[in-house]
Amino acid sequence: METFGRLDMAYNNAGIQIPPSDAADEHAERFDRVNAINLRGVWACMKHELRHMRAQGSGAIVNCSSLGGLVGLPGRASYHASKHGVIGLTTSAALEYAPRGIRVNAVCPGTIDTPMVSDMIAKGELDRAEAEANPPINRLGTADEIAQAVLWLCSPGAGFVVGVALPVDGGYVAR
C-alpha cells in the first residue's frame, strides 16, 4: 500500500503438514498448530487485504487450500480439516464481497514438488512413487503450475469466477 497506493490481488499460501496420525490418537496441540497456520493464517491475511480492497471497491484474492480440502484421506484428519476450513472461509467471503467488486477464490493443489513434500518423502510420511501414480497425469505438480492458476484467477480473464475451489491436481478428484 505504501509503494503502490492500492492492493489489486493477493495470494494467501499458508500451510504446514503434520505426520499422519490416527484421528483418535491425534494430539490437540498438533491439531491446534496445523489449524493456526493453515486456516487462521489465511484468515488473518485475507482480513487485512479485504479492508484495503473494500475501500477501493475492487480486488482479487486467491487462498491456498489443498486437494485435502476437497477429499479426505486416512491419517490426515487434522490437515484436511484445516484445508476444508479454507474453502469454507473462501466461499463465505466470496459471497459477501462479490457485490463489492472483490473476487475471492481458492486453489486446491494436489501433491506438488516442493520442499515440504520432499521433507515428507525423506521422513517416510509419503511414498514418492505412490504420489506420482495417484493422479491420472502420473506425476507431481510444480510450483509454477500453481502460480499460473493463481495468476489466472487474479486476472480479468477470470472476471466471472467467484467462490470456486479450483483443483490443480493432475486429475486426482476427476477420478
UniProtKB/TrEMBL annotation:
Annotated InterPro entries: NAD(P)-bd_dom_sf (IPR036291), SDR_fam (IPR002347)
Pfam families for the chain: adh_short_C2 (PF13561)
SUPFAM superfamilies: NAD(P)-binding Rossmann-fold domains (SSF51735)
Keywords: Oxidoreductase
Superkingdom of the source species: Bacteria
Recorded coiled-coil stretches: none
UniProt family annotation: Belongs to the short-chain dehydrogenases/reductases (SDR) family.
Protein name stated in the entry: NAD(P)-dependent dehydrogenase (Short-subunit alcohol dehydrogenase family)
Organism: Streptomyces africanus
Higher taxonomy: Bacteria, Bacillati, Actinomycetota, Actinomycetes, Kitasatosporales
